[in-house]
User: What shape does this take?
Amino acid sequence: MMKKLDEILEGVQTAAIAGHVNPDGDCVGSAMGVYLYLRDNFPQIQADVYLERKKADFDFIPESSGVKTEIENGKIYDLLILVDVSSLDRVGVAGEYITTAKKTVCIDHHVTNDGFCEENHVVPDASSTCEVLYDLMEKEKISQDCAIALYTGMVTDTGVFQYSNTTPHTMRIAASLLEKEIPFSDIVEQAFYRKTYAQNQLMGRTLMESIMLMEGKCIVGIVRQKEMKFYGLTPADMDGIVNQLRNTAGVEVAIFLYELEPQTFKVSMRSDKKVDVSSIARLFGGGGHIRAAGCTMNGNPFDVVNNLTLYIERQLLESDGE
Ligand SMILES: [Mn+2]
Assistant: This one.
């Protein structure tokens, strides 16, 4: 039974709000959304937001400069709210609070979420954690600042309301956030499209060096550590590359690998219509959504790609047989 956020907050005096490793727009948006809702409606609650590494991309979200990147040793919160976190091993900096906080609550939309908190509000059909969050909030208590945060997460996770996770309900929520007179054009531009020059250069290079498999149904892009170092980029700067790969005529599945350390790769997959990439990511200890999923894999890039394409090919064959 889903409780409303106001109910979850009953009797709470201190709250830690945290997201997942390598926080994306939905993670930052939902964490800040909760924070701003508390700031505006529950000023008696002392709340802190903990996120791994604050991305400049989302600096426009009000109060985001106050985000903490390190936990306070020994601090015990009444409540830990984890947002957009699908499993225990994805918890970012606030991991220690899971054992010390008096109550833990997870608000999420990943189908792979295994319910690792005491209370779990997981809606796999929701476009984003921000969408789940909106439904847990009292509409009239959502300020313009809070609406900016929520809209950011929805824009990021739906690819600006384009991906198949976008529903009429998603659009109705987006509409009600627009009624708060948020700067929606700037949010889309800054949260989704804007890249640094170095990011664009690395994206261009990755596209140029990409390879096509399965008669053009699968595209693979690979970024090595030495390239990231050359452009002065980190894993947090890789956003958008896998989408651009997928955005190729005829491609059903895009695979993007970037090297975390020698022989270890972060894998992101995007699918067009036929392949459930989350089921493949899960085979390798990862997770995500049907059309967007990821995992971490060991070996050389060719081993990694071969392991994945086996399952992609199988699903493509099955769907063609239907
Ligand atoms: Mn999300």
